[in-house]
Write a structure and sequence with these properties.
Elements: E1 4-6, E2 12-14, H1 15-21, E3 25-29, E4 32-36, H2 39-49, H3 52-62, H4 69-84, H5 91-94, H6 96-99, E5 116-119, H7 143-151, E6 155-159, E7 167-176, E8 179-190, H8 199-212, E9 221-229, H9 234-240, E10 245-248, E11 259-264, H10 268-275, H11 279-294
Parallel strand pairs: 5-6, 8-9, 9-11
Antiparallel strand pairs: 1-2, 3-4, 6-7, 7-8, 10-11
Length: 295
């Protein structure tokens, strides 16, 4: 535990310091140790540290116990985006069924950060919070987000479990129409309620993301919103026409969004294709979705 490792910020720290920050208490030597981890802490660590496939496997072993299924599903979406675009590529060539869009799909050299930081975005009173480290971060002006996207070349942020807006945020550099741009990509994960997602839900998600980006200059930025949903209303399903994605025309109403993309994950087959999983992991995905719909 005294071994020195590099943390996500490139700083050298001992392993026991990392364990202590996660409330993990270690007794004994490395080959004969006893580790005491509370289930809540274990779940927290799995979310922030494990890659997609390993995370789904771990969740599958815990589904018969106490699992925060809506939060687990959010992690699965974020980790799948990270996995799919871990190397610089054109999104439409990676996942044509879901990323073949006029703007996002046409970007070149897109890659998402594989490490994730916490982001408290919005509370039930619609106050905006942008602290990166503290769950009790004080309200900050929206320009903080602009400063962050300018100073950090690649970052992945996830809202904390008590945030009223459940989502993720990717910031990365890319090439679009032979010019360098900064891509700000939001993920709105809609599955934690019993009611199917309607046009009104979509409008609210666009409004939140539009307000979050109101401090960012449009020059040199592409602002993309993904709505990741497993249950749409009949009217919304009619727009999708069975296709895996649909691009919503929302620029006039929400000028800070360049492209809003609805992902169609209503059927087990569509979810299996999106998550890129075999039958065993597909069954785990379905169980998480079913549990998330009723929690």
């Amino acid at each position: 535990m005294l071994q020195i490792v590099d943390d996500s910020g490139g700083r050298k720290v001992p392993r026991d310091f990392i364990a202590h920050r996660f409330y993990v208490y270690w007794e004994g030597i490395a080959h004969a140790a006893q580790v005491y981890i509370q289930p809540l802490v274990k779940s927290y660590m799995e979310g922030w540290l494990l890659p997609f496939t390993e995370y789904v496997q771990r969740i599958g072993k815990s589904l018969d116990g106490s699992v925060d299924s809506p939060n687990a599903l959010e992690w699965m979406f974020i980790k799948r985006f990270q996995q799919a675009l871990s190397k610089k590529s054109q999104p439409r060539l990676v996942m044509r069924d879901f990323f073949d869009t006029p703007i996002f799909g046409s970007c070149d050299d897109v890659s998402f950060s594989m490490s994730t930081r916490p982001l408290r975005t919005i509370d039930s009173n619609e106050n905006i919070f942008l602290g990166l480290h503290s769950p009790s971060a004080s309200p900050e002006p929206l320009k903080t987000l602009q400063e962050m996207t300018t100073s950090l070349s690649d970052v992945c942020l996830k809202t904390l479990s008590k945030s009223a807006w459940s989502g993720g945020l990717f910031v990365t550099s890319a090439t679009f129409r032979d010019g360098q741009v900064k891509v700000v990509c939001g993920l709105a994960m809609k599955n934690g309620t019993k009611a199917p997602v309607t046009e009104d839900h979509l409008s609210k998600e666009c409004d939140v993301f539009n307000r979050m980006l109101s401090g960012i200059d449009s020059v040199g930025y592409l602002r993309i919103l993904f709505v990741c949903c497993t249950s749409y209303s009949e009217d919304m399903s009619a727009k999708l026409k069975g296709k895996s994605h649909f691009v919503s025309e929302c620029k006039n109403s929400f000028p800070n969004i360049d492209e809003a993309i609805l992902l169609n994950l209503e059927t087990p087959q569509q979810k299996a294709v999106f998550f890129g999983v075999d039958d065993d992991l597909a069954a785990i995905v379905e169980r998480v979705v079913c549990k998330a719909e009723v929690e």
